[in-house]
TrEMBL record, chain A:
The keyword Amino-acid biosynthesis does not apply. Residues 87-104 have a biased composition (Low complexity). It comes from Astatotilapia calliptera. It is found in: Cell projection, Lamellipodium; Early endosome membrane. This is Sorting nexin-2. Involved in several stages of intracellular trafficking. Interacts with membranes containing phosphatidylinositol 3-phosphate (PtdIns(3P)) or phosphatidylinositol 3,5-bisphosphate (PtdIns(3,5)P2). Acts in part as component of the retromer membrane-deforming SNX-BAR subcomplex. The SNX-BAR retromer mediates retrograde transport of cargo proteins from endosomes to the trans-Golgi network (TGN) and is involved in endosome-to-plasma membrane transport for cargo protein recycling.
Automatic annotation (TrEMBL), chain B:
It comes from Astatotilapia calliptera (Eastern happy). Belongs to the sorting nexin family. InterPro entries: AH/BAR_dom_sf, PX_dom, PX_dom_sf, SNX5/SNX6/SNX32, Vps5_C. PROSITE patterns: PX. Pfam families: PX (PF00787), Vps5 (PF09325). It comes from the Eukaryota. One of its GO terms (biological process) is retrograde transport, endosome to Golgi. Residues 1-166 form the PX domain. GO terms for molecular function: dynactin binding; phosphatidylinositol binding. Involved in several stages of intracellular trafficking. This is Sorting nexin. Signal peptide: none annotated.
Length: 513, 393
């Protein structure tokens, strides 16, 4: 299905220009990237137009759509298939690409990724369910020694017709995930999409696993990683554009995946990445952009603040997890000690009460352990994820700056060439003159094209970022709210259990005589 | 001047059973003053006994005065057969003081509210330590006043009445060293004496029990302390978390004001920690010391037994040598008398000690369980309220 979309009828290439202005998540206009362009074709095929489209796209009121309407009515079957995914008839045909992928509260799964639509306008639309659920499970050690790795089962359950089947599973290893992220980042980051970052590498953690230590800390490490990979995939597919990316589809669907070697830390690609990162950091400091749009400045400041606060919160929550684990251990130790004391006590009723106390404390220590896990997996990991996400957000703003710089550079070059052309007028070498004039004219034309492209790119990325930021913020609010509710509910459970335990102990204490 | 009011004292008086029964001699510490390292207790006595000059009077006392009184009682031969109430431990403000210091150093990294809240917490902790030390000193005096024999002790009376500074009567440096040395010798004695053959079943049982129980309760006290500390750490974490959430809320919708729940949770967690401290840790700590005092009684008795056996041997030797027989006989008779007296009073003391212990444990366990339930119910209500609010938004 995805394949046929790419072979979209040529007439639809007209839509390229229309869509770029209008589409909520516009495909990159430049033809340099081959893959996204193919996706654009797919999008267009599903984009029928109707009266609602104007209201959806806040920027462009042009009447271009009148034309588009007709084209699409001759539509490819893809559109209908995609449409059929949305149960709600209220959704007009316009929105399929977005509505199909529009996150809606998923009733089927109560994990942290309940979604809401990512745009105010879309919230008015009916309840189309974003129906995709990915789970990462069954970590399995493959191989031995230093070449060993963990293979995870990635199961996708979905009714989105982008996929060939409704339920399927594949085996993936950690470097596959990193490879996926690296591909997505190279395709989308520089045009302004916030690509969710992949979980972090951990040489220490993995070495322990490789060496075969089947102890609690390596089990915890694997669980932590498994959970992180799951969240990573869910975040990625929540993004309407990323979901449709062929690399994502391939990752989820195909049983064999070429090994992503360039993700290794010590590979040449890895070194290159490090060098690039350093270069970027230096560049960032030197670019002085004339910010014409206060929105961007405001948002950047906002994200800086948010970053600081989230990091601080993350540290505090990590400390909470640590102390709660300590409390669990101490409680267990006290329970043992109280049991021994009870054994030693010669007054029978008191001895029994002490043993009961020991039992209560033992149960409570388990409670604390569970609560510490909830603290960690719900609260702490969420914060960690968002700290990393914010880095991606900041990166996107930086790319905008670079795009602006590129545009300015082209403009300056054009200026220089124009000056050179003017100078040529006054030289006295007639024979070389014509040739030089022609050359310069060519260069100028090229540069004018570049400048125009640069400006378009800049506008494009600015627009994309606006939409992305709005989506991101909405996601963030929803995410946090959901997680916090879950976390508070876990606290409630712990407290209720505590009540049960102590209420059971009370009569024992009263029975001492 | 930090003072304790009657109300909070009622709540505090939990570790031992209520001791102020006998109206003829009522002692309490109505207030205390904390100056740097030194705590000055005001010891207030109300009495109907004619042995005292006034019916109602107060004197200022320092911790060292209490220690002096305790040591004097321990060294009084006549009381060898009694369990001398354990001396109150030195007031220890090190922990909150260190934390206050660390807080001051870290002030720059915190927001103003966070700093204020942490400071409040530390002040509360300081106050709690203060209250505990007052309580423990008060209980010491009350145990003495409710003991039929010890309440009549002359030094005890001086302690209560003498309105000048007691320091002149307190141990000087040399004596203190002597005391330390005596303790050393006593521990060596302990090793020898536990080996002494015990004739009386009751005491044999008691010895085995107390030795074992002491080590167990010491361990439990230490573990309970660690639990309490971990609880306090969690409460502190909640302060930091709530402070950051508040700053997030300032320019953000996610961490809305409803998350002041975290601050309330902190309060509850803090209260759980301090209640557990009072009911469990303090209980265990007190009885650990009490058991040590009971062990001391056993050792004194064992020493008397050893003395008696030695006197027997000496008498035999004297009879063999036909020299100093009457002295040896007298000595032996005295040793036997002392030993019998110790055994008799020791038995009484140990039996009542067990009763006291059981009652105290019962009371504290019940109170602890009730408080835990109360706090947990509180938390549940707070949390559920907050969840409702969040869900409805």
């Amino acid at each position: 299905m995805a394949d046929t979309a790419r072979d979209a009828p040529p007439e639809q290439t007209d839509f390229h220009e229309l869509e770029d202005g209008e589409e909520l998540f516009p495909e990159p206009a430049t033809t340099q990237e081959s893959q996204p362009a193919s996706l654009a074709a797919e999008d267009i095929s599903t984009n029928s137009n109707g009266p609602k489209q104007d209201s959806l796209f806040d920027d462009d009121p042009e009447d271009l759509f009148a034309e588009a309407t007709e084209e699409v009515s001759l539509d490819s079957p893809e559109r209908d298939v995609l449409l059929s995914d949305g149960p709600s008839p209220a959704i007009t045909p316009i929105t399929p690409p977005t509505s199909v992928i529009t996150p809606r509260i998923g009733h089927t799964h109560d994990d942290m990724f309940t979604h809401s639509s990512f745009d105010e306008i879309e919230e008015e639309e009916g309840g189309d369910s974003f129906d995709i659920h990915i789970s990462v499970s069954d970590p399995e050690k493959v191989g031995d020694g230093m070449n060993a790795y963990m293979a995870y089962k990635v199961t996708t359950k979905t009714s989105i017709s982008l996929f060939k089947r409704n339920e399927f599973a594949v085996k993936r290893r950690f470097s596959d995930f990193l490879g996926l992220h690296s591909k997505l980042a190279s395709k989308y980051l520089h045009i302004g999409y916030i690509v969710p970052p992949a979980p972090e590498k951990s040489i220490v953690g993995m070495t322990k696993v490789k060496v075969g230590k089947e102890d609690q800390s390596s089990n915890e490490f694997v669980e932590k990683r498994r959970s992180a990979l799951e969240r990573y995939l869910m975040r990625t597919v929540k993004h309407p554009i990323l979901l449709k990316d062929p690399d994502v589809l391939q990752f989820l669907e195909s049983s064999e995946l070429p090994r992503a070697v360039s993700t290794q830390a010590l590979s040449s690609a890895g070194l290159l990445r490090m060098v690039n990162k350093a270069a970027d950091a230096v560049n960032k400091m030197t670019i002085k952009m004339n910010e014409s749009d206060a929105w961007f400045e405001e948002k950047q400041q906002h994200f800086e603040n948010l970053d600081v606060q989230l990091r601080k919160l993350h540290t505090s929550v990590e400390s909470l997890v640590c102390h709660r684990k300590e409390l669990s251990v101490n409680t267990a130790q006290f329970a043992k000690s109280a049991a021994m004391l009870g054994n030693s006590e010669d007054h029978t009723a008191l001895s029994r009460a002490l043993s009961q106390l020991a039992e209560v404390e033992e149960k409570i220590d388990q409670l604390h352990q569970d609560q510490a896990n909830a603290d960690f997996y719900l609260f702490s990991e969420l914060l960690g994820d968002y700290v990393r996400l914010l880095t991606a957000v900041k990166g996107v703003f930086d790319h905008r700056m670079k795009t602006w710089q590129k545009w300015q550079d082209s403009q300056m070059l054009l200026q220089k060439k124009r000056e050179a052309e003017a100078k040529l007028q006054f030289t006295n070498k007639p024979d070389k003159l014509q040739q030089a004039k022609d050359e310069i004219k060519e260069e100028i034309e090229e540069l004018e094209g570049k400048v125009q492209q640069g400006e378009r790119d800049f506008e494009q990325i600015s627009k994309t970022i606006r939409k992305e930021v709005s989506r991101f913020e909405k996601e963030r609010v929803k995410d946090f709210k959901t997680i916090i509710i879950k976390y508070l509910e876990s606290l409630v459970q712990t407290q209720q259990q505590l009540i049960k335990y102590w209420e059971a102990f009370l009569p024992e204490a009263k029975a001492i005589s | 001047m930090t003072s304790i009011d009657e109300n909070s004292k009622e709540k505090l008086r939990s570790v031992s059973v209520d001791l102020n029964h006998d109206a003829s001699l009522l002692i309490d510490i109505p207030d205390a003053l904390c100056e740097r390292d030194k705590v000055k207790f005001t010891v207030h006595t109300k009495t109907t006994l004619s042995s005292f000059q006034k019916p109602d009077f107060s004197v200022p006392r320092q911790h060292e005065d209490f220690i002096w009184l305790h040591d004097t009682l321990v060294e009084t031969e006549d009381y060898a057969g009694l369990i001398i109430p354990p001396a109150p431990p030195k007031p220890d403000f090190d922990s909150p003081r260190d934390k206050m210091h660390k807080l001051g150093e870290g002030e720059a990294t915190m927001t103003k509210e966070e700093y204020t809240k942490m400071k409040q917490e530390l002040e509360a902790e300081y106050l709690a330590v203060f209250k505990k030390t007052v309580q423990v000193h008060e209980i010491f005096l009350q145990r003495l006043s409710s003991h039929p024999v010890l309440s009549k002790d002359r030094n005890f009376q001086i302690f209560l009445e003498y309105d000048q500074d007691l320091s002149v009567r307190r141990k000087n440096a040399k004596e203190m060293f002597g005391g330390f040395f005596k303790n050393m010798v006593k521990s060596a004695d302990e090793v020898l004496i536990s080996g002494v053959k015990e004739v009386d079943d009751f005491f044999e049982q008691e010895k085995t029990f107390l030795l074992d129980y002491y080590s167990k309760i010491k361990d439990s006290t230490a573990k309970a302390e660690k639990m309490t500390r971990a609880h306090k750490n969690i409460a502190d974490d909640y302060i930091h978390i709530s402070a950051t959430l508040n700053s997030l809320a300032a320019d953000d919708m996610t961490a809305n004001k409803n998350l002041n729940i975290i601050l309330s949770l902190q309060k509850v967690e803090g209260r759980v920690a301090s209640d557990q401290d009072l009911k469990l840790t303090e209980l265990l700590r007190y009885y650990m010391r009490d058991i040590q005092a009971a062990k001391d009684l056993l050792y004194r008795r064992a020493r008397a037994l050893a003395d008696y056996e030695n006197s027997n041997k000496a008498l035999d030797k004297a009879r063999l040598k036909s020299k100093d027989i009457p002295q040896a006989e007298e000595h032996q008779r005295q040793c036997l008398q002392k030993f019998d007296k110790l055994s008799e009073s020791g038995k009484k003391e140990l039996t009542s000690f067990k009763g006291r212990r059981v009652v105290a444990f019962r009371k504290n366990f019940i109170e602890m369980a009730e408080l835990e339930i109360k706090h947990a119910k509180n938390s549940v209500a707070l949390l559920q309220g907050c969840i409702e609010l969040l869900k409805s938004n």
